[in-house]
Specification:
Elements: H1 3-13, E1 31-35, E2 38-41, H2 42-51, H3 64-86, H4 93-107, H5 112-127, E3 130-139, H6 147-165, H7 170-177, H8 183-186, E4 189-193, H9 200-207, E5 218-220, E6 223-234, E7 238-247, H10 255-270, H11 277-284, E8 300-301, H12 307-315, E9 326-328, E10 331-341, H13 346-357, H14 361-377, E11 381-382, H15 384-394, H16 402-409, E12 415-419, E13 422-425, H17 426-435, H18 446-470, H19 472-501, H20 503-512, E14 518-519, E15 522-530, H21 536-543, H22 550-561, E16 568-576, H23 581-585, E17 592-597, E18 600-610, E19 613-614, H24 621-643, E20 646-648, H25 650-660
Antiparallel strand pairs: 1-2, 1-20, 3-4, 3-6, 5-6, 7-8, 7-10, 9-10, 11-12, 12-13, 14-19, 15-16, 15-18, 17-18
Length: 662
Amino acid sequence: MTLRMVSAFLILFTIICPQTLDANAQSLDATLMTVGGKDVSSDEFIYLLGKGNSTGNPPSGVSREEFNENLDLFINYKLKVREAEALGLDDSEEFKLEFESFKENLKAPFLIKNSIEEGELRKAYSRMQEVIRASHILFQFPPNASADDSLIVLKMALKVKQEIQNGGDINALALEYSEDPSAKVNKGDLGYFTTLQMVQPFEDAAYNLQPGQVSDPVLTSFGYHIIRVQDRQPNPGQVQVSHILVRVDENNPNSEDQARRKISDIYTEIQKPTTIWEDIVKNYSEDPATSQKGGLLPWFSVGNMIPEFEMAAFSLSEIGEVSPPVKTRYGYHILRLEEKKPIDSFEEMEDMIRSRILKDSRSSMIQSQVLAIQKARYGFEEKDALVDQLRSNLNNKPKSSFLGEIDRLGLKDEILFTLQGKSRTAGDLLAYIAEEEVIPRTKGGTFDIWYDRYSGSLLAEAEEKDLEANNKEYKMLLKEYHDGILLFTLMNEEVWQKGLLDSLGQKSFYEQNIDKYQWKDRVNSLVVQVLDQSKKDQAVTFLKDKSYSPAIVDEFEATFQIPNPLAYKFNAGLIEISGNPALAQADLSQKFQEVNVDGQIYLIVLGDKVPAGPKDFDETRGPIIRDYQEYLDQQLIATLKQKYPVKVNNSAKEEAFVAINQ
């Protein structure tokens, strides 16, 4: 059962509010009633009453009659939940697994992590509105670099930055100093890029520079970078092009000149008005992946193609426009613009942005911020000296040696940290490790991995308990789904499945309520609605001397309906007279007649009439099951009202009515 199903069942079987309520209706922390001795708050009723609306109209409150009607429905709902709890349905393993699964989904939007993650998503999308062209010089660290080595690299980066600020050409200096292998080809020019295409520290630095500005050394996992932003432009969105490729063979000294002449001849040929692009691509393009499909490439955005190709593609403005030959490391290209579209909306890109954020260093940054906020909020105080001691002793040892090493050091009862006033010892950490079956797949020292996992789990638990205790919206949502699962389970067992499978009960109910399952006067008939008046006469000629029979129906369908499906629409068989507008106006003494109903022509062929009488059980089994289930529901409510006395607090009831209508 999905989240949406539980919510739908909850609204269907509890609160059916005909008007929209103010989402900010006054909150009342008061007991509205007791059900079998258990308190039910006014807040829960107001919350569910508000969820029952869907019109989207301005808030107009509810009338006294509507309020009382919904209160009765709410009482019935709480009676069923009370019964489900009394039966222990919330103690079953099935319930616990299902509710915990819901809980994981429900709590996510309320967690600290979600708000930080949302901020990063919005920041990334905001940056995505712009593309940046930048050059850089990379200074890498030597293997197993010491602090002195790192300082030497930093000093070199600062020296080169000074040269750039003194007028040096960053692209020439990139050829001389950069340890980025691509610098030999691009001279440090990275072309245009946007957010999520560079490592985070590099991106942050680039987006904080204006054209012409040079950064201080920027530390990333690759080393130190000196960055100079050349240009910033609005993001042009996405483009789709087709292309012709003439390759250059680096091992053939004549290949460059031959390719240049060939692409020039192709470009001249394309200018002719009679030239068909697809034929030229098929005959001359040396890209085997696209030559047989008009050279068409997938959609791409800035930063997804090599710079020369990308700049040529985005410089095209008119659909069908063809570029002059463009040289890349693959050879010579001619591009044709097929289509352009702007950057997608945030909602369309949200999942993609989230996925990419969670795969790069931002995910670690988000988690660090979450932990920092959790530690501040829940009074986390670490015993730094002990943690450092254990780190130095255990980080390079397997976890299987933790117990012996901690015992040897006599630190088992020493306090690692306190959380919300409660102390946690090294022994508590050992107990946690012993219970964990899953081995963390995180890089780092062994102690750091397990210590972070242990403290993080306790901080997450503290945040969840805080939510349940202090976040009213989350508490109400959690209760809604808790009770919704119970309601669904009880109704499924006591009403829906029972009503569906209890054939003896269905027949008994049918016999006791047979007056509800009666046919009105019926007649065997063929009723043809003529949709195309030009086809009417031929149908009249065929039907006018006929009386009803199944064979006539089959013959009419084969001769007229199937060959002319838009000319006629018909109904045939034993039909209730009063329920059919054409039969209701017909003269039942005539075998054939033409009837006009609101401008629509009907041709009617009549047979035997059947007087009103009871429907057979099998003829009306669907409605019987539906009515029987409704009967079982009413019986269940009546039983529960006897079993669990309901006492309504009239003053709280009146306060709730006033709050809803404010």
